[in-house]
């Protein structure tokens, strides 16, 4: 019940100001956000990789309102790539981006986002790593898939995300499960209407399994973004049935969530990538994490009271 309310609040400027100024917020935010600057996140990346894990880095931000902000987002990723180049980690550290932060939601946004993301994808390729396009709300997806297709002509390793809660996704998965493609499957984190998305957990989980099957039986590289123990077990079984080796798919989880499981799966020989978000514009990302688990909200409220 609380999830949709928190997701609605994630789009409110008033709530953004309230939450950002609340006592105790920083402490709770730091559970999910690995730092505010690239200098702060680099040691986290090193520590993660030293544990036998891999990372995908997300500079937090979305829903921008000016072209200058879109250019600043591109520059932030270019700065990150310079740091990654010095670390020489190749695909052990890739990047995740939200196209809305690259200007997609502004006027002429599709062309702007494409022009803005291209140099980032190109720079990533030049240091031996890659970029995955995150999935945002359903109104943005046709544009995201078109940009993904365009980028793949020159950079076929560019990944994208599909969301199990959307009715359209089985069809998208069928199209994307082709040789060379890298596709992350997640349940979906936005507030979506019943006209386009399943609303109940059981339906979403069933759809997730159907889509997982399509990806596992296809020729692409599936990236399983979930902390759900049942789906992890189903993934292992479907991969076995499809005859996939351990390096022919990977698990992905979020920084700060089920960290012991990251290490456990890696120790079993799985490739495990930790989605590591950093930056100052953490509000939308943080609110989605609260919405996913009501206990996080209680923890947050308690930290406000005890401050
Ligand atoms: P759930 O059933 O929600 O959770 C299973 C268990 O995991 C819970 O019981 C709990 O123990 C733990 N857990 C889950 N979430 C939390 C949390 N916030 N705090 C504490 N414990 C938690 N969504 C998008 O819409 N677009 C994207 O591009 C996108 N990228 C993602 C990338 C990665 C690597 C991951 C892991 C998720 C991404 N998501 C994205 C979010 C995703 O859609 C889900 O909202 C999120 O993963 C929670 O779903 P779940 O599969 O973990 O299952």
CATH class: Alpha Beta
SS strand fraction: 5-15%
Helical content class: 40-55%
Give the distinct bound molecules.
Answer: flavin-adenine dinucleotide
Distance between the termini: 27 Å
How many structurally independent domains?
A: 1
Overall mean pLDDT: 94
Q: Which CATH architecture?
A: Alpha-Beta Barrel
What is the count of helical runs? 13
Low-confidence parts lasting 5 or more residues at pLDDT below 50?
none
Strands of the widest sheet, in order across it, are 1-2-3-4-5-6-7-8
CATH topology grouping: TIM Barrel
Sketch the topology as an H/E string, one letter per element. Answer: HHHHEHEHEHEHEHEHEHEHH
Structural class, judged by helices and strands? Answer: alpha/beta
GO biological process, one term: L-proline catabolic process to L-glutamate
Enzyme class: oxidoreductase
Binding site for substrate: 98, 288-289
InterPro entries: FAD-linked_oxidoreductase-like, PRODH_bac_arc, Proline_DH_dom, Proline_oxidase
